[in-house]
Amino acid sequence: MVNKKPIKEWTSFSQQLELLKNRGLIIEDEQKALGYLKTIGYYRLSGYLYSFRKVDAQNFSRKLDCFIEGSHFEDVKNLYMFDKKLRQLALDALERIEVALRVNISYTLGRYSSTAYLDSQYFDDKFNHGDWVTRHQGAIDNEQRKKNTFVNHHTRYYSALPIWVSCETWDFGTMSTLFKGMKDSDKDKIAKIYHLQSGSHLQSHLHAFNYIRNVSAHHSRLWNRAVIFQGSLKGLSDKQWQALSVKKVFVYFCLMKRMLDVICPNSNWSERFLALLDEFPQVANNAVNLKQMGMDVDPKSWQLWQNNKAK
């Protein structure tokens, strides 16, 4: 049986501030710092403080409790604000991608039947269609508990929901799971819309996007998070793609950009993303930098970010 550590004791905001100071964090404005501890919380900030902690010289994978010399609370706060804006940009892009993919999927499957999403013959044999239908029905039931919804209207006047209506109840995970279960020929048709070689490539992107969406929607730290579900970059022509890590988040903002160039080519999303990169805190001790989020190329010199032609 593993010996577990005792639960940490409650500490006041003032004690939390003193703890940070004692560990070497420079705090110029203590009242301002206390305000952030009261509204953001020590535990949430600890995810951003982590990057400023010293590395154990005996074990490089372990962080010490003390901070690197020259670490400022203001830099931690600025990193937190950068990450918040990054999550908002991710959610903005992924909302547009989700809505567009709902249309693509419902249009493709709807040609077979208005209720093709309920019929397993239109999906890959390995897909657990029954589980997906159960999940989907849960979303329908949830909508029916509400008053005056489009679901109630259709269930009252029609025998079933056509796919172009039912898709409005899908969240990103439900949508991407259904796409994964579609036949390869149908997935490939949709992938071609986004200049990808195959549906399997788009499927891998959606899997990663869903992970990033969940992180962002739950207000978790995103900027330097390791991406668990990794997308394929096969077939992408620009040499910059090969310099990027599929384990880091930056490459997925690049993949979002490719899709947005098709979905909404006149959007200023890319300009807002590039402007946000300029807001990344310039830290004198180099405890944090944009390479930690996987930005190993300069997007401002990459054609992908200079025009609306997907590469």
How does this model look, in words?
The protein is mostly helical. The chain has 2 domains: 13-56, no CATH class; 78-305, no CATH class. The chain contains 12 helices and 2 strands. A two-stranded antiparallel sheet has the order 1-2. Helix 5 packs antiparallel against helix 8 and helix 8 (172-181) runs antiparallel to helix 10 (199-217). The longest helix has 38 residues, at 73-110. It is globular and about 65 Å long. The mean pLDDT is 93.
Question: How would you summarize the topology of this molecule?
Answer:
Blueprint: H1 13-22, H2 30-39, H3 42-49, E1 53-56, E2 59-67, H4 73-110, H5 129-144, H6 150-157, H7 163-166, H8 172-181, H9 184-193, H10 199-217, H11 250-263, H12 269-277
Antiparallel strand pairs: 1-2
Helix pairs in contact: 1-2, 4-10, 4-11, 4-12, 5-8, 8-10, 9-10
**Amino-to-carboxy terminus distance:** 53 Å
Low-confidence segments: none
Counted beta strands? 2
**Percentage of residues in strands:** under 5%
Shape: globular
The total domain count is: 2
From the structure provided, what is the oligomeric state, counting identical versus distinct chains? Answer: single chain
Q: Estimate the helix proportion, in percent.
A: 40-55%
Mean of all residue-level pLDDT scores: 93
Pairing-aware structural class of the strands and helices? mainly alpha
Q: Give the strand line-up of the largest sheet.
A: 1-2
Q: Brief description of this entry?
A:
By secondary structure, this protein is mostly helical.
Labels describing this entry:
311 residues; two-stranded antiparallel ribbon; globular; mainly alpha
